[in-house]
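Researcher: Sequence recovery benchmark, item below. Answer with residues only.
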């Protein structure tokens, strides 16, 4: 596990250097069929990660946002070379390189690097969650009326049919903030918020954040309560409030 985390961290740093250079000088933006933006920086950063991890672990497969899947599905790297591309292209310094390790269907390690701030988040199964060398722990808030709720794009929650669920969570919680992308989960893992809700997600959006939240003592599921990264929805909490939040999402 330590070997994997070292390799992931090295790959994220190299990809981050490349992406940061594009971020500082600007890059042309094109759009995928789903109208999500993509840049040369996304594609090149993913190639760097694939090259580095492919050499270190040639038996592992890959699932990436830009280059798709290849190789083994039993052990594979799940990659988002630039999580927060919309922020990236608008010069907003809230984006990150995300890499998760999936082994036999379980996320066992994750790395998240913001190249602008230099913040590095790592987590390994049974190893804890860290920002740099600082061990992270979720908060001990035990009631929804004292909790902070973080959401991503509101229009995606509305389009996904989750608006009423969100409204119930908003009414039940003390504060609500919209940070978006990877930062939702780092704030939660640092104990500065208690709930995160997102929809319209792909596996590479949440692979490393799942293990980060869990190793910080929290809980990560979809809106049905299943601990998966493949359903398109995510509810992450400090654990204490998870069941109550699920009931509100489901209409209870």
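Model:
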């Amino acid at each position: 596990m330590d070997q994997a985390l070292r390799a992931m961290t090295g790959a994220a740093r190299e990809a981050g250097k490349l992406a940061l250079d594009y971020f500082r000088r600007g890059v042309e933006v094109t759009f995928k069929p789903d109208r999500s933006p993509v840049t040369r920086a996304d594609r090149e950063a993913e190639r760097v990660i694939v090259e580095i991890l492919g050499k270190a672990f040639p038996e592992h497969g890959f699932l990436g946002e830009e280059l798709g899947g290849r190789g083994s599905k039993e052990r594979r790297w799940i990659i988002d070379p630039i999580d927060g591309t919309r922020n990236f292209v608008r010069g907003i310094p809230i984006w990150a390189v995300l890499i998760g390790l999936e082994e036999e269907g379980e996320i066992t390690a994750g790395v998240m690097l913001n190249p602008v701030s230099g913040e590095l988040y790592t987590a390994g199964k049974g190893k804890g969650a860290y920002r740099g060398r600082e061990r992270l722990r979720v908060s001990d808030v035990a009631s929804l009326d004292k909790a902070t709720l973080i959401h991503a794009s509101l229009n995606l929650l509305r389009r996904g049919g989750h608006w009423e669920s969100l409204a119930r969570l908003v009414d039940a919680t003390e504060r609500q903030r919209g940070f978006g992308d990877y930062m939702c989960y780092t704030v939660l893992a640092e104990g500065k918020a208690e709930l995160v809700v997102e929809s319209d997600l792909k596996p590479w959006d949440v692979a490393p954040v799942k293990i980060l939240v869990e190793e910080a003592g929290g809980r990560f599921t979809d809106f049905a309560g299943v601990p998966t990264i493949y359903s398109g929805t995510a509810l992450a909490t400090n654990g204490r409030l998870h069941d109550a939040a699920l009931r509100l999402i489901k209409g209870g």
